[in-house]
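pasting for the record
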Amino acid sequence: MSKNDKRADEIIEETMRELYGDLHKSEIRDSIDEDDFDEDGFEEFDEDDHEEISHRKAKKTHAAGYDEKPDYEDFEGEEGEVESDAVKEASKAYKKHRRKKKAGKVIGTIVGILAVVYIGIALYFGSHFMFYTKINGNDVALKSVSQVESKLKKDVGDYVLTLKESDGSTEEIDGSDISLEYVQSDELAKCIKQQNNFLWIISLWNHPQIEASVGVKYDKEALADEVSGLNCMDKKNQTKSKNAYPKFMDTRFEIEPEVIGTEIDEDAFNEAIKEALDGFQSELDLTKEGCYIKPDYTKDSQEVKDAAEKMNSYLGAKVTYDFSPKTEVVDSSVISQWVKVNKKMKVKFDKDAVKKYIQSLASKYNTRGKTRTFKTATGNTVKVDGGDYGWCIAQDSEYKELTKNIKKGETVTREPKYLSKAASHDTMDMGDTYAEVDLTNQRAYFIKKGKVVLSTDVVTGNPNKGNATPPGVYSLTYKARNATLRGERRPDGTYSYETPVKYWMPFNGGIGFHDASWQPTFGGSRYKSHGSHGCVNLPPSVAPKMYELVYKDVPVVCHN
């Protein structure tokens, strides 16, 4: 190494020491990033760096009163090596500072250029439509008013409005068929003025969609003719919309969505066509523009949701009818068929369906008035018709009771409401305890728990005078002591007959059992000549016994 080279290294080393001292005093050393240094230390210093550091060194030494030729003896050995590392750190800190300074200048320049460009674009959009702008679905991006108008004037000759219908089909209205013309207006200029051109950058992701009347005129009568000739306006091609409604699905009611039909709302359709023409739109979607008559209720209507909720609450009911030993059950599978909604989305019962079900129960279990096969006390089998005894469901009352159970969501086991009852639901509905009158053989019996406990001759109604005792199965209405039996009432207030009896047991209106002290004999054919007005005459000695055996509602079987 030459002396000159050596001296240069010494000057640089001394200068770095002073810089290091300054950095050390100001605590800059703590912020220096050692990764910015190269392994070779000073090799990256250029001549300008060298001169600047020398100049700073001279100023610092002069201000401190140092001699320009410091003594380096104290920096020999290990201490010299430590100071050399410090100098490297100081060098790197200085380089980092210079790089940041240069970077700041570059960034500032870029920001300035971008600002100028942004403002320039904003000024441009003061007279042009912004990026991705569409008017009535037509692309006008980056065009001026005059450019858009020129395009509209050119396009009006080929203009066609395409109608998109709900079933996927399309129809067209040709501009030439309605004498469509473009009429210049200030509408487009207004649209540009309404743009916030200094926020043009937003249009890059929020594409402007403008609805505006661009200025056209046409023959309205010709348009009306064109519209009336469209297929979609033909009533034969239209179907009505259907409301959303609760529909039973497996186990519960779910909302079935509405169906939009093809029945045209003429007012809305004509208005939509006018707006499409005024806006020079190329397409009109009849569904989106609400040109069809909509259903009154959709799947989102609260009325539909409330109805579904109520109907599902009804499904929680379970009514078990007791027809011992048989039962009939009304549960959700049956109820779901009865519950409906009306046009106002109010929950109601299908009254006909519910009554039809109750009627089916009556047909199956009613016995009153039906022909019975009866085994007599003497062991014979006879057919017995008529009478008011037997099971008979009160259908109107039962309808009210059943629907009330369902509305409350009740689980109950009960009998249906009856007009009349019998002793049993078996084939022999009068059970094993009843009174029997054999009209042919003029005998009466009382059977208790299947055994004959009373048997007697009787005299029944005289058939030759039209007073024959009617056959049939009846139930005892009541029983009373010391009654007076009366015939028809005459105009003068008297009766055709008045007969006092000690024991009175009616079972068919004014016909019943009673004692008959005036009859000298009973049985045989006496009833044909000296029969009663229809009652069953008992011997005075038997009447008290029969009176003790019978009770209200006990069956009475009269047969031939």
